[in-house]
Design goal:
The complex is a heterotrimer. Chain A is built from eleven helices and ten strands. By secondary structure, chain A is an alpha/beta fold. In chain A, the strands form two sheets. A six-stranded mixed β-sheet of chain A has the order 6-7-8-3-9-10, sandwiched between helices. Chain A has a four-stranded antiparallel β-sheet with strand order 2-1-4-5, covered by helices on one side. By secondary structure, chain B is an alpha/beta fold. In chain B, the strands form two sheets. Chain B has a six-stranded mixed β-sheet with strand order 6-7-8-3-9-10, with helices on both faces. The mean pLDDT of chain B is about 90. Chain C is mainly alpha-helical. Chain C has a domain of about 200 residues. Chain C has a two-stranded antiparallel sheet. In chain C, helix 3 packs antiparallel against helix 8, helix 5 runs antiparallel to helix 8 and helix 6 packs antiparallel against helix 7. Chain C is flat, with a radius of gyration of 27 Å. Classes of the chains: A alpha/beta, B alpha/beta, C mainly alpha.
Chain lengths: ~270, ~290, ~325
């Protein structure tokens, strides 16, 4: 069952630049999809369209069978949560507890239920001992974990991570990536990034370039397409560069074995 | 030696009362030449990296010890004028695009040189040179800094510091937030400045790829002290040290390491480019002789 | 941990005052202040000040914090005191002073003031005290010395009504300051905000969007420390570009300020934009009904405090009407 169905989507910010060009895409329930693209490829715009922060020029998006429009967007938002890039600019509450409560307050959840959910999801994201902290005293990774707890507390089926790790230090990246992996299989996850490492453990990778989808396949198949990746202003994985070099000369013993090994190592994380 | 730290400690709280203070930087001794150095400063968050570089251009004054910056002595009770130091030691902060404010990008680049006392003509000339060096075309220069892309804004900010012609250039996490293409461009630019103009470059980074690609010397900070100060290649050869301080190998070395283990062959994992790595593999597994 | 910035003036100890419901404190302070303005009798006013000081003693907050609030307005207090003292000319004459302005005295006074202004760099604290010393010396010189050519003489007459009036006003201002400090030192800004929201809630029936206003205040409180940190970063970045706030003519100063304000505005704007997106994505609809994680509950101490203040106010009104106190 396709939880997200996008058909012939078009969007532009100004009359000149077209940000999204006739995109069609389906995502199954429980899938972990990674959307890769350079800055300006349209990937974040796509995320905003899915959560209804922007309205498409033409085309349609359905979440769980419901078509997104002005009337249905409030309902649809119950099913999609999004974690944005800047840890500070999505932290609404004065304390961690207040922030996790924010989404619940909006949905008019009863206070008793709120307290339960806050406790549960703070524990899940390892932020239980930080409930009375102010955002000023939290690291980027910790703030993002609070954002994740806040999203999870509203029980959405889909969670979008819009470059959620690009402003974090290595420790923060590890923490958030670990959380994303923990959710794999339990929620439908869309991870938007330009970091190829993050795409490795996705079920499917979609590559965007200048508003269009240029690749839509398993990670292995996508990473084989070196030329398309370079064309899309994305870097190639180091292992791919090495494989290419080896293939070029074709003078190593057990060449095929080594190439396979390098492939394997790529996905071994 | 251009920048010389002698037993420098810095605390964000005042040292007046006889209380236990927490030092952001403790007992640091360091010598940095004003030519040709390319140093990477690495360390966990909170280890003191930002504090260290802010001491280098006298934005912060040491709580203990003294720093000789290009001839000017900086110590806790310093009276000397600090502005000239900031011209000679340029510091580019993280997300430098946030410091832009002028009407046009060119005017913003000219801001620094003018503040440091250059005449209007000289400032304009230096600004244009710096802009071309970082790869900004003239039509970008005429636009407002808020009407250009994030990557271009970053270039404007960096040009703004380069235009004052510093001897030493310090950059705090310059590649964060850039996509792979932008990152590659920036590193190429830094290498160019280092090799052609012989300026010393210091970058704070947590990206080991960057370290292995451009740095000749690495300073590792851990909990306010320097635990390593030396050659990049030597650092990567010290596996025990890397593990102890939670530092990673660059991707290429990790691959070579895994290949060595899987194949059970004596492959030298310390290769710094794909070409070098291939040559090493060829050395061990080449079959041309047949 | 920059708790200082986050909580404004909040002083973090545990006292019965800290534990009171914020609504109680807001209403109690209001009632007390109304009472202060109703009172005419100076001795009754003194009693109210005394009561305030007793409450302060139970707050576990050092008196210094309260005296600091006086420091801010000390200049105005001084001015008001002397203004009232000299203004009133009825009642019993208490004292007369003759002051002589001679050339020598004029020169001495000018020298004293010049020294005062020049000493700004050397003596940084207790400027107001220093000013008082300068003024007192100035007047003393005019009182005692009559050397050299006399320019003019003037007299100052102090009447008992003047003295009473200045003391009256002084006592009231001090009590007001102490009471409001009690409020801000014992209540976190966010609690004040929640308390205010709860009290003003009925206003929504006359069209005032209380919930929206308090949400705005809440977000502002959340971001104040963030903005302060950001300002520091921008200052440092601009300092690295040669901005030196200590030097420069007017033109340069304007540029310096612009180099701080423009980035702050740009960042704030982007922040607001992003935050609005995040809030909307999380289901926030302005003016729509929402539940609240915060729960304000009255306890016995709240009822007692409110009751007490109400009684105080009623008594003062009664005394004023029937006994002109």
């Amino acid at each position: 069952m396709n939880i997200i169905e996008i058909k012939n989507l078009n969007f532009q910010y100004t009359k000149k630049d077209v940000a999204i060009k006739n995109i069609s895409l389906s995502i199954e329930k429980g899938e972990f999809v990674c959307i890769l693209g350079h800055n300006g490829s349209g990937k974040s715009t796509l995320a905003k369209l899915i959560v209804g922060l922007l309205a498409a020029k033409s085309g349609e998006i359905s979440i769980n069978g419901v078509l997104i429009n002005e009337k249905t967007i409030d309902e649809v938002r119950h099913n999609v949560g999004i974690v944005f890039q800047n840890p500070d600019n999505q932290f609404v509450g004065v304390t961690v507890k207040d922030d996790i409560a924010f989404g619940l307050e909006n949905r008019q959840i009863e206070r008793e239920e709120m307290l339960d959910r806050i406790e549960k999801y703070a524990q899940l994201t390892n932020m239980s001992s930080f409930l009375e902290y102010n955002p000023e005293n939290l690291s980027g990774g910790e703030k993002q974990r609070v954002a994740i707890a806040g999203v999870l507390a509203c029980h959405p089926e889909v969670i979008i991570f819009d470059e959620a790790t690009s402003m974090l230090d290595p420790k923060g990246v590890r923490e958030v990536t670990a959380m994303m992996n923990q959710l794999k299989g339990y929620k439908t996850i869309i991870s938007i990034t330009h970091n190829l490492q993050e795409a490795l453990f996705a079920d499917r990778v979609i590559v965007m370039n200048d508003g269009e989808i240029v690749l839509n396949d398993t990670p292995i198949n996508v990473f084989k397409q070196r030329d398309i990746l370079i064309d899309s202003n994305l870097d190639i994985l180091t292992s791919m560069k090495l494989i290419k070099r080896i293939k070029e000369e074709a003078r190593l013993k057990n060449q095929a074995e080594i190439e396979d090994m390098l492939w394997q190592l790529t996905f071994e994380k | 030696m251009a920048i010389n730290f002698r037993k420098v400690s810095y605390s964000y709280s005042s040292l007046k009362k006889n209380k236990q203070v927490k030092f952001a930087i403790s007992d640091v001794n360091l010598e940095i030449s004003e030519k040709d150095e390319f140093i990477a400063i690495v360390g966990h968050t909170g280890s003191g990296k930002s504090t260290l570089v802010q001491l280098m251009n006298a934005l912060l004054i040491p709580s203990l010890g003294e720093i000789d910056i290009l001839g000017t002595m900086i110590h806790p009770r310093v009276k000397a004028k600090l502005k000239p130091i900031r011209k000679k030691v340029g510091l580019v902060f993280q997300f430098p695009e946030y410091q832009l404010f002028e009407e046009t990008s060119l005017k913003d680049i000219v801001f620094g040189p003018k503040n440091f006392g250059m005449s209007a003509e000289e400032a304009m000339q230096k600004a244009t040179e710096a802009a071309h060096l970082v790869g900004l075309s003239d039509d970008i220069l005429e636009k407002s800094p808020f009407a250009i892309s994030g990557g271009q804004m970053r270039k404007v900010a960096i040009a703004g510091i380069l235009a004052s012609n510093p001897d030493v250039l310090i950059l705090d996490e310059p590649t964060v937030g850039l996509d792979p293409f932008g990152k590659g461009e920036l590193l190429k630019l830094l290498k160019k400045i280092n090799e052609q103009e012989h300026k010393s470059i210091i970058i704070i980074t947590h990206d080991m790829e960057v370290v292995s690609e451009v740095a000749k010397r690495v300073i590792v900070l851990d909990s306010a002290t320097i635990v390593y100060d030396g050659d990049t290649k030597a650092l990567f050869k010290n596996e025990e040290f890397l593990m102890k301080h939670n530092l990673d190998y660059p991707e290429l070395m990790k691959l070579m390491h895994s290949l060595r283990e899987k194949l059970g062959l004596d492959i030298d994992i310390h290769q710094y480019s794909v070409e070098e790595a291939y040559q090493e593999l060829y050395r061990v597994l080449g079959d041309t002789h047949e | 941990m920059n708790e200082k910035i986050v909580f404004g003036q909040y002083y973090n100890v545990d006292s019965w005052l800290h534990r009171l419901d914020p609504r109680t404190k807001l209403i109690a302070v209001f009632l007390y202040m109304v009472a202060l303005f109703v009172i005419k009798d100076i001795y009754l006013l003194g009693a109210f000040l005394g009561l305030a000081i007793i409450v302060i003693a139970t707050s576990k907050i050092p008196l210094v914090k309260f005296l600091n609030s006086l420091k801010m307005v000390s200049f105005i207090l001084l001015f008001t005191f002397f203004f009232q003292l000299l203004l009133r000319k009825d009642g019993e004459l208490l004292a007369t002073f003759s002051f002589h302005m001679t050339i020598a005295n004029a020169l001495i006074i000018i020298t004293l003031f010049t020294l005062f202004f020049l000493s700004k760099k050397i003596i940084k604290n207790f400027r107001v005290v220093l000013l008082c010393v300068v003024l007192i010396t100035g007047f003393y010189v005019q009182y005692k010395f009559q050397f050299s050519y006399l320019l003019f003489t003037y007299q100052v007459r102090i009447f008992d009504s003047g003295l009473m009036m200045s003391l009256y006003i002084l006592l009231r201002i001090i009590t007001l300051l102490f009471i409001s400090s009690l409020l801000t030192l014992t209540t976190k800004p966010t609690d004040l905000n929640n308390g205010l929201e709860a009290i003003l809630k009925p206003l929504k029936y006359i069209g005032i969007k209380v919930a929206t206003l308090t949400m705005m205040i809440s977000i502002a409180l959340r971001f104040i420390p963030t903005l302060i940190n950001e300002a520091e970063k921008i200052l440092k970045a601009q300092a690295s570009r040669g901005v030196d706030f200590k030097e420069g003519k007017i033109g340069a100063k304007v540029m310096q300020i612009i180099s701080l304000l423009v980035p702050m505005f740009v960042i704030a704007y982007k922040r607001a934009y992003d935050l609005a997106d995040a809030m909307e994505a999380r289901g926030f609809i302005p003016d729509a009904p929402r539940t609240s994680i915060n729960l304000l509950k009255y306890r016995l101490s709240d009822y007692f405090t409110l009751g007490f203040c109400l009684v105080l106010l009623v008594i003062t009104i009664y005394l004023r009407i029937f006994y002109a106190l």
